[in-house]
Specification:
Elements lengths: L1 H7 L2 H61 L8 H11 L6 E5 L2 E10 H13 L3 E10 L5 E11 L1
Antiparallel strand pairs: 1-2, 2-4, 3-4
């Protein structure tokens, strides 16, 4: 059927059908394949640019956070003595003696409730970034209370 139709066309109609078919095929190729691929490339480039900007922002934020955390210890900042004084008042502890040596601080506490001491030491480590190097405690006559004969701490 298609062959008889083709043979019934004149030579001028043959050329017209071939040119029209070629233009139709090129248009169909452009609309179905080329255009979606080109749009996908453009979209992917835009997404990549967006991700690169986000990555740059994240790197800047990391540098800012690291520099900010390097300038302070915990949320409080200040010297080791200041941190100990402020936090010991916050936990109602009476420091008997405080002896600084190099980057460390040695403390003596005459009488303290054991649970208060543990809470304070936990606060120093977790919130203030202070490392406990040595702790010597002795039980006293009063139940629940201890004497800290030596507590050596330093900034982490």
């Amino acid at each position: 059927m298609l062959k008889t139709w083709w043979e019934s066309l004149t030579e001028q109609e043959h050329k017209l059908v071939i040119v029209g078919g070629t233009i139709f095929s090129i248009g169909l190729f452009y609309l179905m394949i080329w255009s979606p691929l080109a749009n996908a490339v453009i979209d992917n480039r835009a997404a990549l640019d967006k991700q690169l900007k986000l990555n740059g922002w994240a790197k800047d934020a990391i540098v800012t956070i690291k520099s900010a955390s390097g300038s302070k210890v915990g949320g409080n900042g200040g010297s080791l003595q200041q941190i100990v004084n402020q936090s010991s008042r916050q936990f109602n502890l009476q420091i008997g003696r405080m002896t600084p040596k190099d980057q460390q601080l040695t403390l003596l506490i005459d009488e303290v409730v054991f649970n208060d001491l543990l809470n304070w030491l936990s606060h120093l480590e977790k919130k203030q970034g202070i490392k406990i190097n040595n702790l010597d405690i002795t039980e006293i006559e009063v139940p629940g209370k201890v004497r800290v004969s030596r507590l050596v701490i330093e900034k982490s």
